[in-house]
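Hi P.,

Sorry for the delay on this. The queue was packed all week, but I finally got your sequence through. Input first:
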Amino acid sequence: MMQTLSSPTLAVLIKIAVTRTAKEIHTSLLAANLDRFITETSSKERLVQTVLVDARRAAHKGDKDAHRGLLAFTKEQTSGFRHPSKLGPESLLFQLKEALLADGYDLMWDDPTIRTDIDLDSWIEIDKGPVTYHIRPTDAPGTEMAGEISALEAQLNAAGFEVALNHYKQAVDNLNHHNYEASNGALRPMLEDVTFRVAQKYGYTGTSGGNAINFMVDQKKVVPEEWGRLMQGAWGISHPEGPHPGRSSADEARFRMLIITSIVRRLLQHAGL
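Then the structure:
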């Protein structure tokens, strides 16, 4: 399934779009090449909701034009926003930025304001025009988190690690629904269960996930020393900023998901699981 914009992101887009006129909405859909999904025009909200959901469904099935259209429509909705410095953190613009980060995109902008020095100690600001917004992927080129996630789920299932798999699915689901602290909180026991059970296979008799990693590193079992140190680092980042309200951002939670997913996949491969 192709990764595209999540439901929480679509919800913010709908909130923004319904503040426009019906003509402006239709123009945005045309500009984004999403007019092919128009089937419902009873109200502005229903129109946008139907188009975005249908486009997202098509993108999930591999329609790259639908995915590009969703991103183009998102950029269209940034027109008319005041300068970010004049908006509060609760504004729809910042809600959209946070939602996009969880989906792997960063909403950025060019500052149209320039400063002209009057003398050594004073200057004036000159407004060059409206703010220009850009949407950039946060992942490195070629990185497909959805593919990595599906692969790890398959590995955990094949290894019979049902507890770890359940925690991991909860982490992914919470990340997709922008519950960042809950996602972090579910990743932690997943990592602990996997490391504990792999270490047991090689003679570990303790009860701590952290000590299980140290055992594999110190005894040079399962993983090379360099990978062992990387696992120790993953264990370290899995604890701070966990399931506590307000402690985790979209970008941080997504980064944590990428790192821990990759490390656990490699651990299972080294263990032959």
